[in-house]
Amino acid sequence: MSEPTRILLEEHEIPTHWYNIAADLSTPPAPPLGPDGKPIDPSAMAAIFPEPILEQEMSRERWIAIPEAVRETYAIWRPSPLMRAVRLERRLGTPAKIFFKYEGVSPAGSHKPNSAVPQAYYNRQVGIKRLTTETGAGQWGSSIAFAGQMLGLEVRVYMVRVSYQQKPQRRVLMETWGAEVHASPSPLTETGRRILATEPDHPGSLGIAISEAVEEAASRPDTNYTLGSVLNHVLLHQSLIGLEAKKQFEKIGLYPDVIFGPCGGGSSFGGIAFPFLADKFAGERRAAGLRCVAVEPESCPSLTKGTYAYDYGDASGFTPLMRMYTLGHDFVPPGIHAGGLRYHGASPLVSQLVHEGQVEALAVPQRATFEAGIQFARAEGIIPAPESCHAIRAVIDEALRCKETGEPKVLLFNLTGHGHFDMSAYERYLRGELEDYTLPDELLAEALRTLPSVG
Ligand SMILES: *Cc1c(COP(=O)(O)O)cnc(C)c1O
Questions:
Q1: Is 183 exposed, middle or buried (0-12, 13-18, 19+ CB in 10 A)?
Q2: Residue 450 — pLDDT band, cuts 50, 70, 90?
Q3: In a domain? residue 118
Q4: Residue 342 located in a structural domain
C-alpha cells in the first residue's frame, strides 16, 4: 500500500483544548435576546444550565481546556479515524482524493457524544444529579443516556410519542444505558397533562418534548436540561472533530481544498469546519483557497431559503431569540428520513459565517442522498446515517466535477454517524417508496410570517 487509507492518532493525541471560533469572528456574535428584544442575562438560564456551560456559551476565548475526566471518557472511542475512500475514488474514476472523518465509531454511533460527555461532566461538577432532554429519532437521547451513565447522572428523556411507538430500538438503547424514557406528551409535567386532558392520543412533537424537559429542569434544583446542537457550547465541544482531522492531515502532508458536512442544527458541521477556518482567518497560505460547504435537505432548507433574522429556537417560543437563518419557528418540515436535519433554524455561528460569505450552503433532494449513501456503502462497506448521506451526495458531485476538470483536489467530509438504526429508511428507498419534496414558496412565506419583530 503506497498511500495510507486509515490515518490514526494515539490516545494521548486527543486534543487538550477545544477551539472557539467566536474569538476569530470579524464581528462579535449577535447576543441572544429576550422576548422584549433586550439581550438576556445568562443568569436567566441558570435554572436549567450549569455555570461552566453558560460561560462557554458566551466565551470569546480562543482555546478552552478539556477537563481530564472528559478526555478519559472520550478515549472510549476517540481519536476517531480519518479514512480515505479509495474504493469510491476508483469507482468514480476521479483524480480527487476523498477523505472522511468517521464519527460512527462512538458507542451511540454518531458525533453527538462529543458534546453529551462534557455536558454531563459540567453538570456533575456543580452538583447536579439528574439530566433531562427531548429526543425525536433518539440520537441525542441515546448520547446523553450513554454520557449520563459514564459520569454517574440519572437521565430522563422525553421522546416524541410517534417515535416512541414506531422506533423502539433507540428507546431500548437508552434504557440499556440506564435512562428513563417517557412518551411525550407525558403525565409527568404540566405541559403534558394539559395536552393529554384534551387530546389523550396526541402524537407529540419536538416542541412539546422540549417544553416538558425544560419544565422539569426548571422546577427541580437537582435537575438540568441538555441540548444536542445549535448552541455555541455544543459547537465548541464538536471542534474536536476538526482538530483531530487537522493533525491527521498533517501526518500525511495534505490539506483539504473543500470540506463538506451535513447540517441540521450545525454542530457537526461547525465541529469539522471551524478548526480549518481558523487557519484561513489566521492568513495561513495552505488554507487560502479552502471552501467549507454545509449540506442540508431540500425539504428543510434553512440556510439556502431561510431568512437571517432573530427567531425562537423552539416551536413553542420558550427559548431566547437567536439570530440565525430560519424558516420560522412554526415551520413543520415534511417527514423526511434524515431526522437529525429536520430543524427550522441553524446554529447562530454557522449562520453568521454563511451570512458573511465564509461558509457555503447547499440543499440536496432526499432520493439523491440515499443514492449517494448506497454508492458509498457498496464501495466502502460502511452504511452511513441518512444525515451523513447529504454530505456524501455533495462530495460525490464535487469528485465528478474534478473528473471533468482533471483537478486532483483533496476533499474531506464528515461521516457523522452509521445508519444501523435507519434500516427502515434504506428499505423504503430500495423499494422505491421514498419521495423528493421541494418546499413550495407559499409555505416558506407563510412560516416566515410568524417571525418575532425584534433585533
Ligand atoms: C444529529 C445528527 C446530525 C445533525 O446535527 P448537527 O447538529 O447539524 O450536526 C447529523 N448527523 C447525524 C448522524 C446526527 O445524529
A1: buried
A2: confident
A3: no
A4: yes
Total number of domains in the chain: 1
The residue nearest atom 13 of ligand 1, judged by CA position, is: 417
Nearest Cα residue to 161 out of 228, 108, 208: 208
Please report whether residue 188 resides in a domain.
Answer: no
Q: How far is the CA of 412 from the centre of ligand 1 (A)?
A: 17
b/e burial code for range 345-364 (CB count within 10 A of at least 16 → b): bbbbbbbbbbeeebbbbbbb
Question: What digits encode the pLDDT tens for the residues 6-63?
Answer: 999 999 999 999 999 999 999 999 999 998 899 998 888 899 999 999 999 999 999 9
- Distance (angstroms) between ligand 1 centre and the Cα of 112 equals 7
- For atom 3 of ligand 1, the residue with the nearest CA is 340
Q: Give the rounded percent of residues in the chain with a pLDDT score beyond 90.
A: 82
CATH number at residue 273: 3.40.50.1100
The residue whose CA is least distant from atom 9 of ligand 1 is 268
Segment 388-428, tens digit of pLDDT? 999 999 999 999 999 999 999 999 999 999 999 999 999 99
Q: Is 89 inside a domain boundary? A: yes
| pTM score | 0.97
Structural domain boundaries enclosing 274: 6-13+65-109+233-448
Å from CA of 387 to ligand 1 middle: 6
First to last CA, the chain: 57
Residues with CB under 6 A from ligand 1: 110, 112, 139, 229, 262-269, 340-341, 385, 387-388, 416-417
Cβ–Cβ < 8 Å for 355, 261: no
